[in-house]
């Protein structure tokens, strides 16, 4: 028989346990990576390894499989079914689903960029005396767009061509259109050229007002003004690039990319030495969406891929960080590989979601 005092103690204990259980905040499960991630890893002085990361069959961690070596650059097509990659010898095309590889263009190239319809791509070819800009179809048939015989080598994304339509590319130049240049022509500095690529190539030159930061599948384009002190601007269409009338975008932060197959642009800004603010813009009215704090400080060379749902992203940062980030909570989950494998300076290339 339970005495009244003991009965009270038992009831009180049960009540406290119940209240404690009710007051506990349910733990949100950690973000989980699914699908396949193709990335570049290793020292790119002589070309990095193109590898594929997948969840480990052991149930914990991740495994990587090397696809090829000596890759300097890799770009997925707009629907992410094919992958262009450049080595010191050629540009090749890899089918993401079948793994079939096709050689397209021979030579040392860089600045790979796809047309919006995925039927052509552009690239630059570096030679001892000059640099040439080409467009190629997926059978390797090429067309010369522009030649720079100044002998001045310029590198970086700013100097790569960008496609603003299936038949038009935009690029910055500083020495004039060499094939049409007369001996007496005075070359205009700081020029943007729009090249229409058909049976022939037609070029229209204009004052360099902006450089393209990114173009989403729906046509919205983020532009960096020539005056670097000015904020990024956004145009809803590039139908007439030479007569754009863009609107102000984000006044702060660094653009890191659009969500896959989407027009939601993401930005980061460094708020503290150990914290990064992540935010996106509403592609309808360009208003700023909710800011998420990430307890990690990214380097300027960090590269990002945002999932099509815009709820998860992968970030690669030197020397060996590969992170899965919940864009809503800011939670960071390292994507660690097996002990006998390494990820040096990882650069995410394409996230194959299914």
Q: Summarize this, please?
A:
This protein is mainly beta and 354 residues long.
Structural description of this entry:
- By secondary structure, the chain is mainly β.
- Residues 8-19 and 176-187 have low confidence and may be disordered.
- It has a 4-stranded antiparallel beta sheet, with no helix packed on it. A 4-stranded antiparallel beta sheet has the order 4-5-6-7, with no helix packed on it.
- It has one helix at residues 4-23; strands at residues 36-41, 48-55, 62-71, 73-76, 82-86, 90-95, 101-106, 109-114, 120-126, 131-137, 142-148, 162-165, 168-173, 191-197, 201-207, 210-215, 221-225, 233-235, 247-248, 254-258, 265-272, 275-280, 292-294, 303-306, 312-317, 321-326, 332-334, 347-352.
Give structural attributes.
354 residues; 4-stranded antiparallel beta sheet; 1 helix; globular
Topology at a glance:
Elements (H helix, E strand, L loop, with lengths): L3 H20 L12 E6 L6 E8 L6 E10 L1 E4 L5 E5 L3 E6 L5 E6 L2 E6 L5 E7 L4 E7 L4 E7 L13 E4 L2 E6 L17 E7 L3 E7 L2 E6 L5 E5 L7 E3 L11 E2 L5 E5 L6 E8 L2 E6 L11 E3 L8 E4 L5 E6 L3 E6 L5 E3 L12 E6 L2
């Amino acid at each position: 028989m339970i005495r009244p005092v003991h009965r009270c103690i038992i009831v009180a204990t049960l009540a406290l346990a119940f209240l404690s259980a009710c007051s506990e905040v349910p733990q949100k499960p950690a973000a989980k990576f699914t699908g396949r991630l193709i990335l570049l890893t290793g020292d790119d002085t002589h070309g990095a390894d193109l590898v594929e990361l997948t969840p480990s069959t052991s149930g914990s961690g991740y495994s990587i499989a090397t696809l090829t070596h000596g890759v300097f650059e890799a770009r997925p097509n707009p629907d992410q079914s094919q992958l262009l990659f450049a080595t010191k010898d050629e540009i090749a095309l890899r089918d993401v689903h079948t793994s079939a590889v096709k050689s397209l263009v021979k030579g040392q190239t860089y600045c790979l960029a796809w047309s919006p319809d995925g039927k052509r791509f552009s690239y630059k070819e570096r030679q001892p005396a000059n640099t040439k800009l080409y467009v190629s179809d997926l059978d390797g048939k090429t067309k010369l767009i522009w030649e720079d015989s100044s002998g001045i080598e310029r590198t970086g994304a700013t100097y790569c061509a960008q496609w603003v339509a299936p038949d038009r590319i935009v690029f910055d130049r500083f020495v004039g259109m060499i094939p049409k240049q007369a001996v007496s022509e005075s070359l205009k500095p700081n020029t943007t050229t729009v090249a229409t690529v058909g049976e022939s190539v037609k070029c229209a030159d204009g004052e360099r007002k902006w450089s393209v930061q990114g173009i989403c599948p729906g046509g919205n384009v983020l532009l960096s003004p020539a005056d670097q002190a000015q904020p990024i601007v956004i145009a809803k269409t590039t139908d007439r690039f030479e007569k754009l009338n863009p609107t102000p975008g984000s006044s702060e932060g660094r653009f890191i990319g659009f969500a896959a197959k989407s027009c939601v642009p993401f930005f980061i800004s460094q708020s503290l030495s150990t914290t990064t603010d992540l935010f996106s813009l509403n592609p309808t009215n360009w208003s700023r969406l909710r800011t998420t704090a990430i307890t990690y400080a990214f380097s300027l060379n960090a590269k990002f891929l945002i999932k099509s749902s815009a709820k998860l992203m992968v970030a690669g940062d030197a020397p060996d960080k590969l992170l899965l980030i919940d864009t809503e909570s800011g939670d960071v989950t390292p994507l660690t590989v097996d002990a006998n494998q390494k990820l040096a300076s990882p650069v995410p290339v394409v996230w194959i979601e299914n």
